[in-house]
Amino acid sequence: MKHLGKHLILELWGCDNKALDDQVGIENMLVDAVDACGATLICVKTHKFSPQGVTGVAVLAESHISIHSWPELGYAAMDIFTCGEHVNPEDAIPTIRSFLKPDNFEVINIQRGNIVD
């Protein structure tokens, strides 16, 4: 069976609290993650919440990478959704782990758009 895309859901616990609240750092992490997985960046948009937390998305020609952070809990929820044969979303994970420094993380891998040959 073929599929149109890969959707990785990342559960990141015990992250660096300062990184989770660093809007510019998160923007840079998203751009670096896009480069690492071989995707084509269209734009990055982030928003800093008060008193804390950042949400962001890198819009890709191949779909998106998104993050929602809870610095007070040391937690980040991320999605890496890509399509196309030339993109490997798993290659973005080391960049994300390097910036957020989670103690624990889980990757849920979902194949999207399954096609029966």
From TrEMBL:
> Residue numbers for the site described as Cleavage (non-hydrolytic)?
62-63
Provide the cofactor list for this protein.
pyruvate
InterPro entries, alphabetized:
AdoMetDC_C (IPR042286), AdoMetDC_fam_prok (IPR003826), AdoMetDC_N (IPR042284), S-AdoMet_deCO2ase_core (IPR016067), S-AdoMet_deCOase_pro-enz (IPR017716)
According to its UniProt entry, one GO biological process term is:
spermidine biosynthetic process
Q: Mind telling me which GO cellular component terms the entry cites? A: cytosol
Enzymatic reactions: S-adenosyl-L-methionine + H(+) = S-adenosyl 3-(methylsulfanyl)propylamine + CO2
Active-site residues are 63, 68, 83
Q: What does this protein do?
A: Catalyzes the decarboxylation of S-adenosylmethionine to S-adenosylmethioninamine (dcAdoMet), the propylamine donor required for the synthesis of the polyamines spermine and spermidine from the diamine putrescine.
Similarity-based family: Belongs to the prokaryotic AdoMetDC family. Type 1 subfamily.
Quote the protein name from its UniProt record.
S-adenosylmethionine decarboxylase proenzyme
